[in-house]
Queue: 3 jobs
Job 1
Amino acid sequence: SPLTTAAPGKLSVLDVAHRGAAGYAPENTLAAIDEADDRGATTVEIDVQRSKDGELVVIHDTTLERTTDAEEVFPDKGSYDVGKFTLKELRRLDAGSWYGKEYKGERIPTLGEALDRLRANGLNLLLEIKSPALYPGIESDIAGVVARNPGWLAPSGKRGADRLIIQSFDWESAERSAKLLPSVPHGLLGTVPEDEIADYAEWADQINPSHTKLTADYVQAVHDAGLEVLTYTVNDRSDMRAALDKGVDGIISDYPDVAREVIQEH
Ligand code: G3P
Ligand code: CA
């Protein structure tokens, strides 16, 4: 599948807003996607999981307590795994107030809603399949939603680069997804041992390690195998500069406006 290429006049390195712009709005909400657009991101990273009744929902943790009011709304549930709640139940939750009272009423978005909002903003998507072992078959659910929503298999959004990239820490899940969506680039989160990169290069397009694990030699080895490197979660200017010095192709940050500035200055 095609590698990302920046068009003339666009950023040379992808500026990826982590969980939406999580530094400025409640993560993985439509408000965070709008904030990412306002802050000049090229791409938004969000996490996808699945409800009890099979709907794809955008949320990071596999439990609801940290970013919603689930304990107040469902005091008798006892445990709060995302996959134990129907979409109707999840939609009752407030996913904004924990971050700030001005975000009261933000909901856990469905993947379809997130796609609509990203498209409205002309943003590209870096979609993380979160904890897929909990959701057998989620890769084909994702492929179905992507295929049903127009435009996501097209080559480019407003700010260039690929419209959609799919990634996971679960490399077998990423491979299943790559087989279902062969025209979509796929990334492996984490650090693939150097002697295994060539094998993964048969179907993967990116290796996306933590910036704390990154060396220039590692980035070079990934590039030599024909893959790209996006690195997470880079929030300090000095760490952004260090990642750019090592040759990364994208910076995933809670502060995409800061990343944009550092990329432009570099
Ligand atoms: O995109 C990479 C990054 O999101 C991975 O870590 O825990 O924020 O999903 P996490
Ligand atoms: Ca993520």
Note: The mean pLDDT is 94.
Job 2
Amino acid sequence: MPKVYLLDYVAGNVRSLVNAIEKVGYTVEWIRTPEDVAKADKLILPGVGHFGHCMTQISSANYLPAIRKHIESGKPFMGICVGLQALFEGSAEDPTVPGLGIIKGRLERFDDSSKSVPHIGWNSANTSDKQVYGLRPSSKYYYVHSYKVPYRPGELESQGWTVATARYGEEEFIGAVAKGNILVTQFHPEKSGVAGLRVIKAFLEGDSKIDTIVNGEVKAAKEGLTKRVIACLDVRTNDQGDLVVTKGDQYDVREKTSGGNVRNLGKPVEMARKYYEQGADEVTFLNITSFRDCPLADLPMLEILRRTSESVFVPLTIGGGIRDTTDTDGTKVSALEIATMYFKSGADKVSIGSDAVLAAEEYYQGGKKLFGNTAIEQISSVYGNQAVVVSVDPKRVYISKPAETRHNTISTKFPGPNGETACWYACTIKGGRETRDMDVVELVKAVEAMGAGEILLNCIDKDGTNSGFDFELIDQVKSAVSIPVIASSGAGNPGHFEEVFSKTKTDAALGAGMFHRGEYTVKQVKDHLAAKGLMVREFES
Ligand code: 1PR
């Protein structure tokens, strides 16, 4: 099989990139020293996370002169995400660290005054009337970043570059740039489904010719970030010791009849693949028992991720048990080490639940100071904020009047058992079994300050009820933070997704039971959203 060379430095989830390359018929050879670069015919520079961190890693290992030489010699070069950013002159993310300066321009942070940052999700890479390296104006690609190169019409084009652009709110930015042997993408082609695999294949096959698209031949997708639809799989071992996808009613996963067995709704890898094929924009696995008695290296979720990432080319999130812990042989293992194991196995994001609540409590007790020692801070400083999701498991506490509590309250249209019209949302830990004296607003503000990049907002009152999402909870959380929020719990039909996207500002919505029980497919949800005029990624086969 033909080979492509990948630069090996700490850069998040490279397993998916390897899988994507293999999927289109190539093998990967690792470059582990600057001298190795000379033997590369085709070279790929991956990268995700912090610009300064990645550039410093590459530069202190002395790779920069070799990369420059490779590019200048005219050999094929592809940069992904920070691999694109590296070719520009620098980034506001770390102004002290220079880029290679091969392309003119600097990165700036997205404006978060009226939209969520990081920019996470599916957006265009529109080359208008040109088609190069398999990029299509009709496709959407998966982005995850807080810094962008602003697009200035004509500037790079006048230097011979072909530029693909995307729009986020009012900001138009560069999604990909190509010229001759060089292709760099801000989006992750390895996470962009069939559209992304096509770009990787075109690069590997050296298909850099620029075709002009005849007017009307290709219909461009609507501009902007799509609404994300996420399928979630709660995974645990059942009483027979098999690893199954299960689903609770308000977090109770045992059948009400037939001996109270753990509900078994199917096999994790097969179900993830099915949802990918139905057009899910992301797949989330929650390990809801954390497999307490198992050595960490044998965690069944690692194998599930490895197998899933071989055939699912959209982002994968893994949650459950991400905290400092002690292995079965007594060795101390940090949350960062556990996260690293997951990233190496194919996860793009880790989701932290209980540990985030405990860390937030300490944050407030310590007078809102950060010491860099929490799992959120440690993982986000190495892998970037976008790699750290905080999963929140709140439940309603009704009160007769807001003055009764110190917590952030809302007035609700859904009165409590004694007619109460006010409530607050208490955070829980250990899968909802323990309620803490912390409200959701306190939690999400604290974890945003620590460096979380996204909130997975469950709701115990709504979980498994099929009665729709809790808009009051979503509104309260959305107005407290500027990082993206995923609405979760309560989805029972496609109309519930339409409602949550049109009535709240949520960035994404997640469903579980309705998909697992086969009541609706992800495709039906997305078709319904599209029919109602909401922008979704169309599935390409
Ligand atoms: O605390 O870091 O070990 O993480 C544990 C993780 O496992 C948390 O993310 C927590 O939400 C999750 N979890 C723990 N116990 C349960 C349980 O159900 N007994 N599941 C559980 C949480 C909620 C959602 C569910 C949506 C949508 N599941 O993931 O998928 O509510 O369901 P629906 O569409 O069917 O209504 P840590």
Note: Residues 232, 234, 247-248, 251, 253, 286, 288, 290, 319-322, 351-355, 391, 393, 431, 458, 463-464, 488-491, 511-513 surround 1PR (CB under 6 Å).
Job 3
Amino acid sequence: ASMRALTEDADRAYELDRQHVFHSWSAQELINPLVITRAEGSYVWDGQGRKLLDFTSQLVYTNLGHGHPRIVEAIQEQAAALCTVAPQYANGTRSEAARLIASHTPGDLNRVFFTNGGADANEHAIRMARLHTGKHKVLSTYRSYHGGTQLAINVTGDPRRWPNDTGSTGNVHFFGPFLYRSPFHSTTEQEERERALDHLEQVIALEGPSTIAAVILESIPGTAGIMIPPPGYLRGVRELCDKHGIVFIADEVMSGFGRSGEWFAIEHAGVVPDLLTFAKGVNSGYVPLGGVAISDAIFQSFAKRPYPGGLTYSGHPLACAAAVASIEVMEAERIVEHSAALGEEVFGPSLRSLAERHQWIGEVRGVGAFWAIELVADRETREPLAPYGGSSPEMGAVIAATMANGVLPFANFNRIHAVPPINISAEEAGEGIRALDAALGEARAAVAS
Ligand code: PLP
């Protein structure tokens, strides 16, 4: 069958999906997946031929939009030249992808171990940290997501961990900073930073620094709510790690590759982690790819003894070709600068003006093309419009109204995230925000009636 014909036949796609496809994170018979038959730039088309602005970048990964011709051509050319080669060989495309990635990661993160995605990148980063330090425990935050494999889901701080937190040892969770819902009763960013660092210092002291291999953090927590850490927080974490011989792992799977208006979100803090994990935006997810960028010190740990880990598809040429093309496009088209400008000139001002007009908006926060709208039932109590880990008729109405206004929304509990491709034009971004504006009004009216 022609792939194009398979992709465009919406009825058959839906019918066979329901018969044979088992979906992530879902009660299989309670879902009704939207068929996507076509995509271009910042838009997708559903099975009814309806055009939707993709304000999700799928799962926040098509950073250069759909069908970018340079990336598609690179994959086609690589497929014709050398479609695959095992990881033990050297391959020019993989070498170039590693060089380009290392040229943009901060500090001395000069080596790249390639994985298939973000979860396995975090698994390997933790394995490296344990072997490098000879210690075992891993500290991570509540309100985080690090992936769906056994260790990564145990490190995660999200309700998806709850049914899975049976099979892994040494995971300890602590509270990261989140001023709007401060676990420390802070009223200012400075208080939140100081108290969050005091809290982490106490967790390290009470767990025992001699038992802790790593602290893993999303430089800006993504799915959990795009909480920008207060100034000085990540530097404080870096200092605590240095003081206690703990490896600092920055998870940049969602926040990396321009999403935050820097190549990597940790650059906003001027801090260099020991390991940095990436996936998603490295090649806009056109072919699965993730990896770990490794400091010189940790590299030295494996210079003369073997690293006990690997994957059949580590550094797959098709995925690496897509990464080379993506990074070249980002450099040539100044996509990181564009992302920063979108945040300052479009998302920041227009979402704040939305917050003035809609009672349901408790807070908007973000940077670059990475924004969260926190919806509340009551602005005084900050009661979320859906409970943590759950949904509500109000959130259901917001999502439905957003789609009825032509926009595919990213929703998580009581939040809507505005996370479009980072090469979206200011006009398209404005179109999406106007749809959210209309949707919030319509949803409130619908729920009230
Ligand atoms: N880390 C973060 C911050 C993520 O957002 C994700 C995915 O959403 C992951 C890790 C897991 O990546 P993957 O789904 O590619 O395994």
Note: The CA atoms of residues 223 and 401 lie 21 Å apart.
